[in-house]
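Subject: BTB/POZ domain-containing protein structure
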Amino acid sequence: MADQFPNPTIPARRIKLNVGGKLFETTVSTLHSAGPDSLLAALSNRPSLPGSNPIFIDRDPEIFSVLLSLLRCNRLPSSTLRRFSIQELAEEALYYGVESRLRSASLPSPLRGIDAAIVDTIRPASDAVPSTFSAGEDGSLWIAHGGQISIYDSYLSYTAAVRTHLDDITSICRVWPEIAAVGSESNSGLHIYDLSSGRYTGSVHWTDQDDPRIFKARVSAIANSPDSVFVSFDCPHRENSVLVIDKSTLQVSLELTRQSGSAAKKTAPGKLTWLPDTGLIIGSAVTSGAFGFSGYIRIWDPRSKEVVWETNEPGSGRSSRFGDSFADVDVNTDDSILFKICSKSGDLAMADIRKLGDDPWVYMEDTNPSLKETSYGGNDVHLHCYKRQVFVGKDGGLEVWSRQKGLYETVHLTRGISDSENQRPEVSFKRNYVDQVVDAERGMIKRIEGGGERLFVSRDNVEGIEVWESSNHSGIIPVSP
């Protein structure tokens, strides 16, 4: 690993460089800090004779000045991103062999919803209203719009666009770093594309020769594990299933479930999540109509094909929140915690997946009167768990619930049970509004997804994807359970 600062054991001998006609003077130790395999370290090892001309490099001197400052101070000058694009910096850093140093210095601060703000909006060149998107672990972004996918690297620099054979893309999942699994509400099948080359590699369809109702099955949800892809399929005649696809062969290895009918508890899962700790699959479906929201949450064990836990809302009436059905569900896979957001009250509830029962929900309420719910109109709500935080989009507003330590007075957890049972001081969350009023007025939130140290947000019929990052000066520290 390259040294992050000049090595004091290397003599502080001065060296002159002529970059694009501009003279620079620095020390050998500063150039050596670029790493032993870098061009700058190699140049610094050249013998220097008295009276010899400075080493000439035919590159941009202004960007070299920025990279030299990075080697000296391990940070970029504050004006850098106003003067140069990340792509320009990355190309020069690659030439000199200091791309890892630039990447480290360019990374956003650890994502904390409590102090996040919009730093950019990524807009594809054409068909800029996104249908869906996928964020990578490195903070990169794939945006589906129309039948194509625009690709942005970890610097959020545009790299390429891949045109698919689909009319539109409504589901996208990263099954490998450069391989996308995509689905469409207007085209049947799951389709695999290599985005590094733009090449179509294959498709998987749900078929059954013994059942003529199984045809033109469209994808409604995709989840990924190291060995398998889990796909929810939905047919025009209300037949639906969840299939397990072997990633090495792109063949169906298991039909996890099959159901039929238009009832809420028989609809296709609109969300799938794979739990790495247990290998379980969590699926949820939500429908809404004149009488409100209804849906189910179901947990399968792929090894036995058994449903290990299930809940339907509205329930039997024994639930402490009967009549306030969930509008969305998501999973904190780090801690195996299931979250739901209520459709009428907008309240957030959690359940420990390891201790599920008939009514496992714990509801979180603010004791701070200034944060009491006043603006939720019950129109649209989205839930996303990321880095032990729960991001909630209500209509156009965005809020975050962060797990805290030593802030037990902030949130009261209720179950509709006795006070003695309700005392759980080991669990505490703090709620904050992430956005400002002007942010919420941009439009209804359609999708939220985290990637790297960024949060990405799309809005209904609004061009582009919002990029949210945290301030460099935040003092809040995430707390592990």
